[in-house]
């Protein structure tokens, strides 16, 4: 999730992003691969969120190579990718406009096809190209989905091991939870509630709550509570997404630094020479003997070589690149492959289909309360904030995302929907959340504080796709997000804006609001105007999924089975967000770590060698 998709906020605090950060090389020198042919038990393509997780677990009992296109984000991007506050304001590459800043050392610089139902916009879609992948750029919210979403997953793939209760051990396995430090948080109205049964004695991924609470967000939280979104005493890790909660984040609370798959799982494997990482290396093709995957063609700074797998190859290249790699290697829709003169290894029509990308809009007012960015932008208060951060891992710099709510639309708003939207929502389980509200705050271009609440769809009905422009993996994949191709998505967002206007009209929000609504603005009032606003302004929250969907053999969209094995070939799995069979409510990274743990365990137990 990102609270803001507004580049103005980024531009304003850009001056804060400080100098170089001394980063120790986290893995031993003899764990860095030397370009040249070599053989491992497992070869993992992509050292991102899922890739480093599954690689670290497999290296407990086997030899593993990881091929990663990027290097260390701490060196390549400095504090922006490390300091929690900067995850909201300093990650400049999240700019979705076509004039986004170019940072090829950490971002893939993908730009989509024009979104014909969203004003013809071509959007820049940031994706981490670094050890840690998108966990190095994300907003760090750690939110599991609802039990009913995992039940749908289990039903879609025909495997009961995907129910929430059966997945819980794999969620617990990764996470080292630190309870909130209420002294540091110093906000009586912001005590996080959570269910201790949802966590265990896991590791190595640190999850915690911010060591500082943004004052503006406490008022926005109260406003959401006052319109009926009560605090959920179980929080966002127990399979229930309804009401409101202070969100846990992947932050190391002792240092108040970003926790990514690199600082957790790669660190965990440091010193274990069964794990070898090939950084700054591009996987260009999966090699097959017949229909059995045998190796990967790799390019490191112009040197081309083959990493062979004696057991399996695991593709963890993310939502856009995993389907691309399958296609350039001969696994995908036959007509697409033949049109690019790629020899067909397996005709698999679902590869790259079923892309789901939830969209979001903001409702914002100027506010009288301060916020973290205001404290650190003020030369009078900044030095103390820096001291708090450096000496006590506390204060505004330690603070990332804050407060999230979920709900099913009220009957009043449901009655305003199109019949077709109501029918689509009625097919979802009765406890499925329909809209997510995120309380956020930022500085306007002139330095004034703004409060912003966003509405995000929880179930994406629109479908997009990923395909290839050539047989060369170095050519960017062709991405159509499919935004608003199903009218239900825009319809739900219009209702979401109406609900946020109710929140802004509440006493707690009115007590801090200065003047009229700024975004969308009072002149946007009829349903037609609201829908036009939504289509022109909605943006991603960087949760795209499902381009190599898990499913039952023969289903149109199905690319992998419930053990993540690619249909039609042998010794090849895909393990990352692309295999989620649906767009799950909540935030995806918790489930990305979980699914990597689960598949690693299946492999360890000897399951599923084809
Ligand atoms: C700006 C932003 C904010 C977000 N906020 C949140 C949030 O707050 N909470 C949340 O839960 N989720 C959030 N997400 C989403 C979450 O981070 C992703 O869903 C998750 O990280 C995806 O993991 P993955 O393993 O599928 O892919 P990635 O982590 O992206 O990993 C893919 C890896 O493969 C590498 N790769 C790709 N192709 C090749 C190739 N050919 N050769 C070699 N390497 C290759 C890439 O460099 C990358 O390291 C956010 C994402 C972004 C971008
Ligand atoms: C960022 O890194 C530099 C160099 O290590 C450091 O001096 C600076 O204080 C850091 N900024 C913050 C906000 O921590
Ligand atoms: C909580 O924060 C306070 C204030 O910084 C600190 O003194 C205390 O040690 C912290 N408690 C824990 C358990 O870390
Ligand atoms: C910033 O702009 C807004 C809207 O024009 C205005 O209300 C506010 O007073 C301005 N703030 C400053 C500090 O000038
Ligand atoms: C693939 O594209 C890259 C980047 O444009 C280029 O350097 C490389 O030569 C191409 N590979 C082939 C096999 O054409």
From TrEMBL:
<dbReference type="InterPro" id="IPR012132">
    <property type="entry name" value="GMC_OxRdtase"/>
</dbReference>
<dbReference type="GO" id="GO:0044550">
    <property type="term" value="P:secondary metabolite biosynthetic process"/>
</dbReference>
<dbReference type="GO" id="GO:0016614">
    <property type="term" value="F:oxidoreductase activity, acting on CH-OH group of donors"/>
</dbReference>
<feature type="active site" description="Proton donor">
    <location>
        <position position="543"/>
    </location>
</feature>
<feature type="domain" description="Glucose-methanol-choline oxidoreductase C-terminal">
    <location>
        <begin position="461"/>
        <end position="596"/>
    </location>
</feature>
<dbReference type="Pfam" id="PF05199">
    <property type="entry name" value="GMC_oxred_C"/>
</dbReference>
<feature type="active site" description="Proton acceptor">
    <location>
        <position position="587"/>
    </location>
</feature>
<feature type="binding site">
    <location>
        <begin position="542"/>
        <end position="543"/>
    </location>
    <ligand>
        <name>FAD</name>
    </ligand>
</feature>
<dbReference type="InterPro" id="IPR007867">
    <property type="entry name" value="GMC_OxRtase_C"/>
</dbReference>
<keyword id="KW-0325">Glycoprotein</keyword>
<keyword id="KW-0732">Signal</keyword>
<feature type="signal peptide">
    <location>
        <begin position="1"/>
        <end position="22"/>
    </location>
</feature>
<comment type="similarity">
    <text>Belongs to the GMC oxidoreductase family.</text>
</comment>
<keyword id="KW-0285">Flavoprotein</keyword>
<dbReference type="InterPro" id="IPR036188">
    <property type="entry name" value="FAD/NAD-bd_sf"/>
</dbReference>
<feature type="binding site">
    <location>
        <begin position="588"/>
        <end position="589"/>
    </location>
    <ligand>
        <name>FAD</name>
    </ligand>
</feature>
<protein>
    <submittedName>
        <fullName>GMC oxidoreductase</fullName>
    </submittedName>
</protein>
<dbReference type="Pfam" id="PF00732">
    <property type="entry name" value="GMC_oxred_N"/>
</dbReference>
<feature type="domain" description="Glucose-methanol-choline oxidoreductase N-terminal">
    <location>
        <begin position="40"/>
        <end position="357"/>
    </location>
</feature>
<keyword id="KW-0274">FAD</keyword>
<dbReference type="GO" id="GO:0050660">
    <property type="term" value="F:flavin adenine dinucleotide binding"/>
</dbReference>
<dbReference type="InterPro" id="IPR000172">
    <property type="entry name" value="GMC_OxRdtase_N"/>
</dbReference>
